Amino acid sequence: MSKLKLLTTFLSNPKQVITMGIQALNRKQSEVSFEKKNLDKYGRAQLPTLDILDLVPGMQGTIHSFAYLNGASMPTIILMLKALAKRMPDCSYMEFGSFRGENIVNVADDAKDCTSITLSPEEMTARGFRPGFLKVDRFFSKNKPNIKYILHDSMTFDFGSLNKKFDLISIDADNRYSFILQDTKTAFSLLKNDNSIIVWHNYATDLENDDIRQDVLAGILDGTPPSTTPTSIMFPIPSALSSSGATSLRA
Q: For the chain, what are the domain ranges?
């Protein structure tokens, strides 16, 4: 943007420009603070990276019910979730945050049963979600027989009431540090056995260029037991796409 255009934008609405600048500065300072925390506490500002084809050799498949709209997971992430569910006999899948339901409705083809905890319409309204979000809530997945919905905030729900453990858990709800931290701790308490897997979303915006969300990484690391090392996933298909998720691998 040219200097003249910047000046014109500022003069036309100085309050908005100043507010946006302060918000951007706060976000940058927060990222720097979390990066320092991750380096000081864990000696890392990025997870080790694994090629998805090393995790799921020959991964291929088909997804359906995909909107190609804002807020959706990448198709490769949905394929990975399906591939992981498929290799687990009678897979029980848990999802934190569903939005349109694109992930869970595709995974439901390969899992025995699926459970989602996601905000109720009343909770979304109270948090100021725009009407368009409420309109498409669970759009793809409301009538799938092997999908159970829990319309509740994961921060306050009593997961012990489920009396159930899961093979595969996807965390894609609120991406702020405190929420990632608690959802991660909860997810580890819900794992069925040492072969169970957790997948986190929105860990990176551009993994190839080391553009890591340090607040999300801090929530993952702080919520993960010391004996477990999370690993980020690189997708080589259809080209060198990078994931916005990280998978917890357990020895």
A: 3-40, 46-249
What is the token pair recorded at 165? 């453990």
Domain 46-249 has CATH 3.40.50.150: yes
Per-residue pLDDT of 109-147, as tens digits, reads 999 999 999 999 899 999 898 888 888 889 999 888 999
pTM of the model: 0.83
Among 171, 177, 172, residue whose Cα is nearest residue 34:
177
Average pLDDT on 1-30 reads 61
* pLDDT classification of 148: cutoffs 50, 70, 90: very high
- Quote the CA–CA distance of 222 and 84 in Å, as a whole number: 25
Q: How far apart are CA 85 and CA 216, in angstroms?
A: 24
Whether residue 156 contacts residue 174, with contact meaning beta carbons closer than 8 Å, is answered with no
Residue 249 has pLDDT above 60, yes or no: no
Question: Bridge partners of 148?
Answer: 115
Q: How many CA atoms lie within 13 A of 182 on its CB side?
A: 12
Handedness of CA 159, 162, 165, 169 (dihedral sign): negative
